[in-house]
# Entry
Amino acid sequence: MAKITNNYATGLLIATLYVYIISVAVTARVLPLHPYLNGQENPITNIFDTSNYGILQLGNGLALTPQMGWNSWNFFACEINEKVIRETADALVSTGLAKLGYNYVNIDDCWSEFVRDSKDQLVPHSETFPSGIKSLADYVHSKELKLGIYSDAGKFTCQIRPGSLFHEPDDAKIFASWGVDYLKYDNCFNLGIDPEKRYPPMRDALNATGRPIFYSLCEWGVHDPALWAGKVGNSWRTTDDINDSWASMTTIADLNDKWAAYAGPGGWNDPDMLEVGNGGMTYEEYRAHFSIWALMKAPLLIGCDVRNMTAETFEIISNEEVIAVNQGIMLLQLPS
# Structure
């Protein structure tokens, strides 16, 4: 295990102090108590007692630690294709990041055609994903990695591709048939239907396939999903989208912090993907960003182009001690 340099240790200490300061700021807030943390049961014992697994969370056997991997959106947005995804899988392996736990290769929006086919099924875009998602999943699996895909709990995705609202059984079946391991499920064009009603049908549809598929709710924190999503998904966005700036990152950290009591094995608060390496913050700010996400037990989903990352970016996201904070035995989100 690599040693932390003095500078990195200082950065981690600063991040720790930052989270502590947030905690002082929010202590006056009165939050609803998690129903399983109301004194009737010992929270630590209950969370780590596998005989009761599923009481707190979805119970699909996934997300015992916060998910780690890569997502296409922060760097590529809609400029994605199967070559990028294959090369990213290759890079995760060749750099050693896969061995550190970064095992999800997640395709975000824009992978599909703009309309469903004649059988009302989702289909990959013929120009950017000509080999199909099944072939891509097979390639990613051959690298001992997992493939993630994107859809939306609305009529359309955020980039106006077909959404999965009212198509949940069919879409879940096709995702499973392709070998998909992860679904990011967004919140655009939702017809004004409450998320508490829109997100459970996809949970049920995914579970009905018999394939373990990580279910990531991207509801933007609109209806405080930490209060209800524990039995719906494996992670839930607590905030709006991040952007590559110190102001955005720290604001999102503040917003996510208040829900620390609701995170644990099986379900995690998600303050959005990492921006480390995308150029909008300094080296020191990116170190703080990564450290804060680790302390918050947030998903560690790389958002840069790992095929062309700098040595500084690699140093930050490959630090084994910081990753251990995120993935280690004390799996509750540190209160802030």
